[in-house]
Amino acid sequence: MACIEARGLRKTYGATVALDGIDLRVEEGRILGMIGPNGAGKTTALNAILGLTPYEGELKVLGRDPWTERDQLMLDVCFISDVAVLPPWIRVSQVIDYVAGVHPRFDRSKAARFLGKTTIRHSSRVRELSKGMVAQLHLALVMAIDARLLVLDEPTLGLDILYRKQFYDSLLNDYFDGNRTIVVTTHQVDEIQNVLTDVVFLYHGRIVCNSSMEEIESRYLEASVNPERLTEARALKPIHERQMLGRSILLFDRVDRKQLAGVVSGPGDVRTPSIADFFVAVVENQDAQAQGAGR
Amino acid sequence: MNNPSHVWNDSTVESQGRGRTMISWGQRFYWSIRRELWESKSIYVAPLIVAGLIVFAFLIGTFHQPGKLGVALTLDSGIAQHTAIEQPYTLAALLLMGTTFIVALFYCLDALHGERRDRSILFWKSLPVSDLTTVLSKFAIPLFILPLVTFAITMVTQWIMLLLGMAIALGSGLSVATWWNRVPLFQMSLGLFFHLMAGHGLYYAPIYGWLLLVSAWARRAAVLWAALPLVAIGVIEKIAFNSTRFASLLGERIGGGTAGAAFPGSGNVPMHAAHIHSAFLISLDLWIGLALAAIFIAAAVRLRRYQGPI
Predict the structure, then answer these.
(1) What is the CATH classification number for the domain harbouring A111?
(2) A211 domain residue, yes or no
(3) I want to staple B75 with a disulfide (CB 3.0 to 4.6 A). Which of A5, A231, A270, B81 is the partner?
(4) Which of A47, A106, A145 would best serve as a mutation to test chain B binding (most B beta carbons within 10 A)?
(5) pLDDT tens digits, chain B, 310 residues: what are they?
């Protein structure tokens, strides 16, 4: 069964179209990265999935309609929307008591074990903790809940690199077991590139790319080419081109690796593109197409 | 830290058998109420402070004018004597009620606004607690919890005052028995209990409901949005029909209407109490108010469903 299934999912705020009819299917056991610039519709899509906002179109999460069956759905879905949403007045021990009191799938001993690895004291109030510690606390709470879908909306925004790395390490080592599904949005795409199994690029409320990481790795290659061999390289039909330090970086879709190796100077000059570079290429092509269509 | 073993057992059973929900609505409601008490300490701290001040003032008063007590006991008329001795107790109850009413107003105005302001609504909504449960738990604070807290604190305060009074009377050679007879604490407490639960709880329900609704709706300046429409209706009525029906209705509601008549000070008329109580419970006023409160609360629940952080 698909964990998330959307067809023609659309959401408008007055005249602004936040989601322009997206189709999306996320199987169980995947870790999906939702990537897009600010205002692309990521948070709107997540809010629809979490039943926080009404929408047009069809949407099923774990077989349920998130808007009408939200209370039931929240037994199986956890989310961290943004850092710092834990109430500042609450004590660590109180928030554990509360979640244990209202959530049937919360394992108090697990939460205590995760917290034991941090320096967070049970008597502290959230407002006394550093931003990184609040994120650790929230993650410990969420990981102690036996949920089927975990949604993370910019869960590490504003944290330093150590906390960010630790956050995703815990998530992979202590939480993800191949059955759960995780959907994450972040601007630090490159940091989570090897965590993801799938990516979706959102741009202006539309999905401009929806692919598994394996597919990206097997289909796309990036080559950095010296100016004198540019014509040769262009003959291989790159889908995107950019300049860097006097060389051209060309992105190819389904190109013969050997052929490509012939036009570059060294073996290190051909590689799998980073998700961020790939995203920029896809988006710029999208813009060029849109302009072309407009003319 | 309430019975952690029980909670722990629940969750282990749950994690083994997915799909079975063992947390009842009552448990979620209970924890939601506890959450409110953690967040809004003023619910009991404010009346406790006022109670402390009352006892302190009472002590100073009785030491300062010990003669007054003697004079009170020698008054000819039983009623005058009664009033003189009972007065500080009634005053204490009034002060505490006033305090908790103010606490209730501020609590309601902030209840659904604060969670959006500090963005914690996103955390609360990530847990399987419905908007209805959350709003009802917030409504229950002024409706039941605050009257109960007020009752308990008032009782303790009055008993401390009585014991202090008797100790001082004993020290100045006055009759303790007279004292005891003149302060009918038990009758007063029954009256007080009814007054608090019926008057401050049920009769004020539409006020609390309205404030919760504004609190769920307003993006800022909730106080202003709570008051302005009421003032506007009053002004429009005055200009359009040259009448002040709405204003007097509002005044009557805050004044307590028929519930106000059942004030505990009338401990000397216990046989009237039952009559007043039943008259209050079947009064149209009360039920119209409760219906209004239900509409406001339903609207607040619906609003919270759509609202995100501000």
Answers:
(1) 3.40.50.300
(2) no
(3) B81
(4) A106
(5) 444 444 333 333 334 444 445 889 999 999 999 999 999 999 999 999 999 999 998 888 777 765 555 566 565 556 666 666 777 888 888 899 999 999 999 999 999 999 999 999 999 999 999 999 999 999 999 999 999 999 999 999 988 988 887 787 777 776 677 667 766 777 778 888 888 888 889 989 999 999 999 999 999 888 899 999 999 999 999 999 988 888 888 888 887 765 555 454 444 444 456 667 777 788 888 899 999 999 999 999 999 998 878 7
- Residues of the domain holding B199: 30-306
How many folded domains does chain B comprise? 1
* CA gap B99, B169 in Å, rounded: 30
User: Beta A240-244 vs A31-35: how paired, if at all?
Assistant: unpaired
Torsion sign across C-alpha atoms B115, B118, B122, B127: negative
Task: Check if the interface score ipTM surpasses 0.85.
Answer: yes
> How close does chain A come to B149, measured CA to CA in Å?
22
Can you give the pTM of this predicted structure? 0.86
Q: How far is CA A286 from CA A235, A242, A280, A283, in A?
A: 22, 15, 10, 5
- Nearest-Cα distance to chain B for A287, in Å, is 32
**Which residues in chain A touch residue B1, judged by CB atoms under 8 angstroms apart?**
93, 97
Among residues A136, A170, A204, which one ends one of the domains? A204
Q: How far apart, in whole angstroms, are the C-alpha atoms of residue B109 and residue B211?
A: 5
B122, A102: Cβ pair inside 8 Å? no
Check if the beta carbon of residue A12 is closer than 8 Å to that of residue A62.
no
Please name the member of B12, B121, B122 whose beta carbon is closest to the beta carbon of A107: B12
